[in-house]
Amino acid sequence: MPRTFAYVRVSTTGQTTENQVREIEAAGFKVDARRVIAETISGSVAAAQRPGFARLLDRLEADDVLVVTRLDRLGRNAMDVAATVDRLAAMGVRVHCLQLGGTDLTSAAGRMVMTVIGAMAQFERDLLIERTQAGLERAKAEGTALGRPATLDAAQREAVRAALANGANVSALAREYQTSRQTIMRARDAAAA
Question: Which positions are catalytic?
């Protein structure tokens, strides 16, 4: 007989999983309290690397049902969500997502929905990259200085190079100018270029 599990996740300790549990119950899923796996961990951590989800994987068997309220409970990355759903499907576990009308993500329709969502997420990432690149090109064309501001001004860089030429220690100069050793070495190397 198939068992029903619920995976509920929040990202920070100030949050609670109670609303997710209630939403699953309101959708008509009867989940024994022992089969509700709750954890507090960022969605950016791959599902298989989360302690609670790893314990859940150990408990799941063929024909079991896993219910989540939203796709982002499984992960923020479409690739991770797809890999997790594929892994569960290979185990014979059905995955229902309430956000998608309770669709079984391991079914043909569920896989199509996942593919469309993944394609839309990739499309949005590509648009973001294009907009960012266009903005950077415009800023360069307008002569805007990009990147972090220089820690040392031109006079300070020249003074550092002179001090190094006279045998000064990189670490001592970094302390004197209240900066990193890497900044001092970049000033030194800029003169050689």
Answer: 11
Q: What is the model's pTM? A: 0.64
pLDDT tens-digit profile of 45-78? 888 899 999 999 999 999 999 999 998 898 877 7
Q: Are 103 and 167 part of one and the same domain?
A: no
Tens-digit pLDDT profile for residues 15-30: 999 999 999 999 999 9
Domain range for 175:
154-192
Q: CA-CA distance, 56 to 65, in Å (whole number)? A: 12
Are 34 and 23 in contact by the 8 Å Cβ rule? The answer is no
What is the C-alpha separation between 5 and 161, in angstroms, rounded?
65
The domain that contains 100 carries what CATH number? Answer: 3.40.50.1390
Nearest to 102 by CA among 92, 113, 91: 113
Interstrand relation of 65-68 and 103-104 (parallel, antiparallel or unpaired): unpaired
What is the spatial distance between Cα 84 and Cα 43, in angstroms, rounded to a whole number?
A: 13
